[in-house]
Every structure is written in C-alpha cells, then in structure tokens.
Amino acid sequence: MSNQSVIDRTQWPLWEIFIRSKQGLDHKHAGSLHAADAQMAIENARDVYTRRMEGVSIWVVESKHIHASNPDEAASFYDPANDKVYRHPTFYDLPDELKHM
Amino acid sequence: MSVQDLEKIFQDKIDADIRIEPKDWMPDAYRKTLVRQMSQHAHSEIVGMLPEANWITRAPTLRRKAILIAKVQDEAGHGLYLYSATETLGTGREELLEQLHTGKAKYSSIFNYPTLTWADMGAIGWLVDGAAIMNQVPLCRASYGPYARAMVRICKEESFHQRQGFEILVTLSKGSEAQRRMCQDAINRWWWPSVMMFGPNDDASPNSAQSMQWKIKRFSNDELRQKFVDVSAAQVKLLGMTLPDPDLVWNEEKQHYDFGAIDWDEFWNVIKGNGPCNMERLEARVKAHEEGAWVRDAALAYADKVSRNTVKKEIA
User: Which of A1, A77, B120, B274 is the most buried (most CB within 10 A)?
Assistant: First the structure.
C-alpha cells in the first residue's frame, strides 16, 4: 500500500472474497466486502460468507488488485480457440469396437 | 458501434438467458433500475433488522433468543450481499447509505410497522419472510449476474427464517387462551401489510413491463401475490387461526383463492413516510451509523499504523 493511499482514504477499501468449501476443492469467488485491512476482511468474510460451515479456508484480495479481461473484446480475445475442435477427444472418428479409450 | 447496436446485442443476450456481468455494456436505464431495486432491497434487509432486534432481549427462552440473533445476523449478511452486488454497478457503499439515511432511497414499507408482541416474531417469519421468499426465488434467475448470485445465497438462508416463524406460531397456537389470542392478533396485523409487499396491482405498476423485458422480473406483482395468498390460506389452517379477510374464499373455477380489496391508500401513505414507525426506523439507522463512526475511523487508523510499521520494517 502506498503512502498516498494511506493519506487519501476515508472509506474502508473493498475486498474480494474467495472461499474453499472443503479440503481438496479450489477457492471460489464468494463476493466482496469492505474492511479496514486484510485481517478484518478475513474475519468479516467468516461472519458473512461462512455462517453455515460453507468454508474451511478464506482468501481475501483487495479489489483494486484484480485485473480482468475486457468483455468488449471477448470475441477476438477468445477467437484462437474457436476453430480448434481437434483439441477435444470427441473430434476423433474411431471404430466402435475400440475399448478402454 | 452505435448505441442501437449495443442495445440489440444486450437484449439478444437477455433473450438468450445469458447473464449480464458488471463490465458488460448495458443501457443506462437498466443500470439505474438495478441500482434502485437492489439498493432498496439491501436497505430493506438492514432496516428489517430493527423490528426484530426489538425482541432479542425479551425472547421467551434462550433457544428463541439464539435463533433470533442468528436470524437478525442473517439479515445483516443479506444486506451486505446486496450492497456488494449493487457496488458492482458503480455506485459506492457510502453513496448508497447516504441515500438511505437522507430518505432519498426507499426500503420495504413492511418494516415501518411496529412489533408489539412476541407473536409478531412468528408472524414476521411466516408472512413477511414468506412473502419475501415468494418475491426472491424468481430473482435467483435475474438477468444481472451479481444480483442473481446474491439472491441464491439469500434464498438458501431465508427458508430457516420462515420455518422458525411458523414454529413460534405453532407453539402459541397450542398454548393458553391468551397465547392463542396473541397469535391471532399478530396474524391480523401483519396479513395485509404482507399482501401489500408485492407492490401495486399490475395495471398500476408502470415499470413492470420494462423489468420483465430485461428479465429482472419474471412474474408480475399480482401473480406472486396470488401465489402467496393461496399458500398462506392453506397454511393458516394448520394453526387453527384465520386470515383477517372476510372475502377470502376458494374459487373452484380459477383454482385460486379470491381475496378482498387492498387498502392502497394505506400502502401509499406508509411509502410516503406516514407509517407508524417511519421516523423511528430512520432515526435508529442514522444513529447507529453516526455512533459507529469512531469504530470505522479507529479501524482505519489502526490499519494505517500497522501498514506504516510494516513499511518501516521493510526499509530497515
């Protein structure tokens, strides 16, 4: 955090919350909340997003640190994958008698 | 790309049931409608804590007290899910709260009625939360992604609220004569305001058609209201109580209950600020916000101090 933002801010910053619902699964975005610092964000996330045992682990990231792809450019951005059906196993024409594949 | 083209792409997405996400292009009116509806909903959750908090200290047993605290805490959480979702549309939390505190933004009128007896906790859970669920379940499929996701979370938790309310009424309905009277009295007072929660009749709800086209709304006010009346009219029988409507009667032909005329003057009057508790609710909210200011400031000051010390250590 820069000194500039320390001086400027009067509101608690926004944090994005990621929850692992059980061991072995990925953390998944659950929502966002305001908190003064990371520790408070984790505690608030516990109170808000895991009141019914929905989580065993919490990640918090200040929202300003999230960079996202631009939805307006989605068509061209994902275009390279459009014409490559051969990347999918179902693309291949194999004899029906073939087993275990 | 022209605005017409963008609008066409937008509406095509909606028609194809593709969710709109925060960074997608959307018409200003869609954004404005969502901010209004979602923030109003968030405010309702927050103000809705007040009538029930009134009974936490006077809950009849520890079990009821623990349940009521958990329920009120859920309402705070629901408010937060919705504020966060609203913030994705570019309106900050501070601004949303400002709109509530100055009276510029509305919240559900139902919370401007007083909670006079313990039975009101039961009637609120059964009827008010019941009506809310009826409204909210279709919103889980609303076209705006963050709103729909918040609603999924809320609906999962709302069911406990309704069931605990009905359980309170079941207990009272099996109690003493005085308890049964209290139960009926609470139902009498909460019934009509709950029926009004679905908003004006369809022919008096000018924005509904647009919200339907945008798939923010999936059913009309009157459709949802009818469903609520049908369900409640059947449920009240289990309590051995009645709903305060002499015109409530099963219509074999329609396969629905007919019900009496709604007092819309009362509805508009409460919306305009003349309900029994409008002033009190807003004052309590503003007071809580102002008296909490030092906590927010202290937390920020502490966070800043810790971060400065961390920077110093890193430099050293």
Answer: B120
